[in-house]
Amino acid sequence: MKIKIGKKKKANKPDVRMETISDKSKFAIVESYKAARTNIMFSLSADDDKIFAITSYSKGEGKSTVSANLAISFSKMEKKVLLVDCDLRRPNIHNIFKIENTVGLSNIIGKMTDFEETIHRDVLTNLDIITSGTIPPNPSELLCSARFVNLVKKLYEEYDYIIFDTPPVGVVSDALLLKDLVAGFVVVIRERSTTHGDIQNLLESAKLADSKLLGFIKVGCISSKRRSKRGYYYYQYY
Fold first, then answer.
1. Taking 90 as the threshold, does the pLDDT of residue 44 lie above it?
2. CB-CB neighbours of 97 under 10 Å
3. Contact predicate 196/217, CB 8 Å
4. Among 197, 202, 211, 232, which one has the highest count of C-beta atoms within 10 angstroms of its own C-beta?
């Protein structure tokens, strides 16, 4: 399935926008996220699960923006949605939504604060957010901890859908450490930035970690037929 959105200004410099969809967004952009949302929902229903993660191979490919917009799209269905910034090294969700990140996920797992004092309720209608919090010296250990697993189990009962924004697989292994907590990963790849070698390495890493890929979202493409228009997002299953 091919879905239209996104544009690139220069071939050697990815244009990574941090714009969230709203009622004022272009119809094609909103519909593209709806189509991606529908495909993800089918994948989740096959596993009878409601948690999935967004990742990429390298930094700067737009995974956090995609995470944010998918979270917004899911919340538009009047479902209770939680977006969790699991990138404890280079977090970005708080920047996209312009919310505080004084405390967050790392502080909850590290027993420095309570869950209710940390979560951002109703950032948008039906959408709650947990930011990353203080950047810790041991991100991998925190994401593997029993306390985080217990937190996810608690959240599972409260929300209809939970989305993890995770670090790039080609930079650190943090994302794949969450494989047992999610139905699978949606991978963001960027035209003229992500290479075929990157994708192959990501597939091999996922295979070695026995991780399931739900699909790819390709951003920043330029249509050969409509170069003067906006480019495309593609969503397709792997």
1. yes
2. 21
3. no
4. 202
